[in-house]
Amino acid sequence: MTAEIQLLVRADDIGSSHAANLACVKALRDGIARSVEIMAPCSWFPEAVSLLKDLPAGRDVGVHLTLTSEWPNVKWRPLTHCPSLTDELGYFLPRIWPRFDGDLCLRNRPWKRDEVEAEFRAQIELCQAQLPELNHLSYHMGCNDADPRIGTLCRELAVEYELAADPFAAGFKSIPLAPKSEIANTTERLHQALSCLQPGKWILIDHPSLDNEEMQGICNVNGRKIARERQHFTDACCSPSLLELIRHRNIQLVSYAARG
């Protein structure tokens, strides 16, 4: 594709909750999202698969490879037996990187590469069996950067399963967004960023969801209203003013399959 400005908008974490499922599909069908990242180990994965049937043209799906379960009130287990990657209850660890000495996280554990590989293969193959639109890999909480050995494994799996893996290696750059402290309104922040976007290939990654009781119970922690932030992003994705700006500037919304 030879468009002057290309924009890949990626909706992460479908399958993680009912609220995320509904919002991700809305952002795909009514808004600017062109790719959605599905989490196979999560309890709302079956509904996500059902909702992703018959996607509009120009949208695609990635396996959001998962090694962590970060929310205190919702926990995810691996698809395989991988004790080096789990806590004493069998849940994925809450984080990749430590916040303090002895923190319960992947980098502080003697994790095993063969268990990571088996788990990643199980997640990929479960998604491939149910989602024909699947065409790339992405990585929850940046798990591919947890260790060079995991990064190498991810690249090898992308080649083996013929799943495009890294838009940044293909020349995409993150869109420059003003700090939230300067522009609190998400639609305004995106409008400002897209108004100033220069020719090139750009990517925007975020987490559509709904600000409802389910999502508030999952992710409103430490005084931060994350459910509200994710609702605002969903609203921005579907904003008529943002869609008009994209049309006016001839910004080409691209999927992984269409990225040049």
From TrEMBL:
GO molecular function: deacetylase activity; hydrolase activity; metal ion binding
One of the Pfam families matching this protein, by short name: YdjC
Cofactors named for this entry: Mg(2+)
GO biological process: carbohydrate metabolic process
Protein name in UniProt: ChbG/HpnK family deacetylase
Higher taxonomy: Bacteria, Pseudomonadati, Verrucomicrobiota, Opitutia, Puniceicoccales
Keywords associated with the record: Carbohydrate metabolism, Hydrolase, Magnesium, Metal-binding
Top-level taxon of the source organism: Bacteria
